[in-house]
Design goal:
about 450 residues; mainly beta; Porin; 2 domains; 12-stranded antiparallel beta barrel
């Protein structure tokens, strides 16, 4: 029989060995930090949820962050997570927007992660016990994990590893509000497909809030040549108009400037039968400011050439009525604003107003709806729109209530279709009947 002290020695060596010790110290800290990192990356699985290895979104972020250990980027072979070395971890570089990353900062098409979320991921990586050769770039031409590490949709090879100046959020959800171009650009090598749709007049004889009346539609393709420089081509069934445009923003608030400033220019070709001024163009200046990361305002100034496309303009110069070609231009002042709602700012309330500037002369020097081209004494109120937008991933969807059916620049410049809501002496109220329309815009970006 063993002495009592020996019995306790045997129990101390054998008894507890059958029960796993509780997590303490570093293991418990790493587990808690990984849970915080998983919460920070939770929304990333909306796009990165596994799938075809050839798809940039094939990286699976729906699981625990530790599943990224040993996984490399399919684009440049850099390890996503280097235990104990946050600044060598490509995952952190992508969500931080470091210099040298391939493609855009993640999440693409959405607001950057908050400083707290980025700090949570960084703290978890720093707490991981270092592994031998975990961060080595030697032989990194391939990927591990069956190419699970395609963490970005960019191209080319990154140069440099250090932190760069992280970009902020872009001013607007999309490159256009309801009609006005915005100070948001696509980014280098990004393709956009957009559909603009305006239903018929609400209250028309066929009814159904304009859904049963002929619609105006525009299809657009846009491409980001460089950061801040886009080109676009679009086609609408209104007067069979083609518009080729370009937008350049040399000053961008997301790059640390106090505001965004740039210009938009376009040429248009109206191919419909019996249309005047079939070749025309537009020049616009854009200035915006994002306030408190919740509210953006933009002012625009536009000069639009040959905006009266009515082929039957009749003028009486004292010798009787005669048919003339109206070559007047239009000057516009525009205001656009959005307020972003929700914790993640995925929703917005959107406003827009476009004023064709009256000159007060007779005849008017500049053309505008409701000027001397309309019934005597009848004035217009400009073009306005009220809408709401939702952004998810690379999509932006907007619904619109407006008095303006036109989508292309030279067509909306003279003003909206709603008359002054007040009675005009000597003018039949039926002529003043309001014209309101419902519509929507849908845009999808593709990173090439």
């Amino acid at each position: 029989m063993l002495p009592i002290p020996h019995v306790f020695s045997v129990w101390a060596l054998s008894g507890p060995a059958a029960v796993a010790p509780p997590e303490t110290g570093r293991d418990a800290d790493v587990g808690a930090l990984e849970a915080r990192a998983a919460e920070a990356l939770e929304d990333c699985s909306m796009c990165h949820s596994g799938g075809d290895e050839g798809d940039p979104a094939a990286l699976d972020l729906s699981g625990p962050p530790s599943s990224l250990l040993g996984v490399r980027s399919a684009v440049n072979g850099r390890p996503l997570v280097v235990p104990g070395k946050p600044d060598e971890s490509y995952l952190l570089a992508k969500i931080r927007g470091d210099e040298g990353i391939d493609g855009e900062r993640m999440p693409i098409g959405d607001d950057p992660l908050s400083d707290e979320a980025i700090a949570a991921v960084e703290a978890w990586i720093a707490a991981l016990p270092p592994q031998e050769d975990a961060g080595s770039d030697e032989g990194a031409s391939g990927t591990s994990g069956g190419d699970r590490g395609r963490a970005d949709g960019g191209e080319g090879k990154g140069k440099g590893r250090g932190k760069g100046k992280a970009r902020g959020r872009k001013p607007f959800f999309g490159t256009q509000q309801a009609a006005l171009p915005t100070t948001t650009t696509l980014g280098k090598r990004t393709l956009l497909f957009r559909i603009d749709h305006r239903f018929g007049r609400i209250g028309a004889e066929r009814g159904a809030f304009g859904l049963d009346v002929g619609a105006i539609i525009s299809f657009q393709l846009a491409y980001g040549i460089l950061d801040g420089w886009d080109v676009l081509l679009r086609r609408t069934n209104s007067r069979k108009d083609w518009e080729l445009g370009t937008k350049y923003l040399p000053v961008r608030q997301e790059d640390g400037m106090p505001l965004s400033f740039g210009a938009y220019a376009s040429m248009e070709w109206l191919r419909d039968f019996e249309v005047a001024n079939e070749f025309t163009g537009n020049l616009m200046l854009l200035l915006s400011r994002l306030w408190f990361d919740r509210w953006v305002t933009m002012l625009t100034f536009g000069y639009h050439f040959d905006t009266n496309h009515n082929p039957r303009v009749i003028v009486d110069r004292g010798d009787g009525p005669e048919l003339v070609r109206d070559r007047r231009d239009t000057i516009t002042l525009g205001l656009a604003s959005s307020v972003f709602l929700g914790k993640k700012k995925r929703w917005s309330i959107d406003l827009e107003y476009i004023l064709p500037v009256p000159d007060g002369k007779t005849p008017n020097v500049f053309y505008r709806l409701g000027g001397d081209a309309g019934p005597e004494g009848l004035t217009q109120v400009g073009a306005w729109a009220l809408g709401g937008s939702f952004r998810t991933g690379l999509h932006v969807f907007t619904v619109i209530f407006t008095n303006n059916r036109e989508i292309h620049t030279n067509l909306w410049a003279p003003g909206g279709q709603t008359d002054n809501p007040f009675d005009t002496p000597g003018v039949d109220r039926a002529i003043n009947e309001p014209n309101f329309f419902l519509g929507f815009n849908l845009a999808r970006r593709f990173k090439l």
